[in-house]
Amino acid sequence: QVQLVESGGGLVQPGGSLRLSCAASGVTFGSYTMAWYRQVPGKERELVATITTTGGSTTYADSVKGRFTISRDNAKKTVYLHMNSLKPEDTAVYYCERPLVFAQFKEWGQGTQVTVSS
């Protein structure tokens, strides 16, 4: 059974930084492109960033480009999201999952809340 556990969220002031972590189990982690998503209540889940199996290629939503960096450690089965220059509009629950897996096979975790506020 696939399990993805997100952590590292919290309350931060505008302009601050956070590092999110997503630990995977029950999956051949190194075989999957991984991604971070975020969701605000009442809105659809948004794809924030992706990283290929070896970390050789990454993509970002325009809204976070230049501020967020996705990385992974396959030995630790963990994917990270380094967030800098945070803005209030980055406030959301952040989740990790495998973007290329069909929806019915996705295993969403509880996510981690990020709140950017002064």
Computed over alpha carbons, the radius of gyration is 13 Å
Contiguous runs where pLDDT drops below 50 for at least 5 residues: none
Query: Taking all residues together, what is the mean pLDDT?
Result: 96
Strand content: over 45%
Structural class: mainly beta
Instruction: Give the H and E element order.
Output: EEEEEEEEEE
Largest sheet: 6 strands, mixed
Number of helices: 0
| CA-CA gap between termini | 40 Å
Short account of what is shown:
The chain is mainly β and 118 residues long. The chain is 0% helix and 46% strand. It is globular, with a radius of gyration of 13 Å.
Question: What does the model show?
Answer:
- This protein is mostly beta strands and 118 residues long.
- It is built from no helices and ten strands.
- The chain has strands at residues 3-7, 10-12, 18-25, 34-39, 46-51, 58-60, 68-73, 78-83, 92-97, 112-116.
- A six-stranded mixed beta sheet has the order 2-10-9-4-5-6, with no helix packed on it.
- A hairpin with a 6-residue loop joins strand 5 (46-51) and strand 6 (58-60).
- It is globular and about 40 Å long.
List keywords for this structure.
46% strand, four-stranded antiparallel beta sheet, single chain, 118 residues, mainly beta
SSE topology sketch:
Elements (H helix, E strand, L loop, with lengths): L2 E5 L2 E3 L5 E8 L8 E6 L6 E6 L6 E3 L7 E6 L4 E6 L8 E6 L14 E5 L2
Parallel strand pairs: 2-10
Antiparallel strand pairs: 1-3, 3-8, 4-5, 4-9, 5-6, 7-8, 9-10
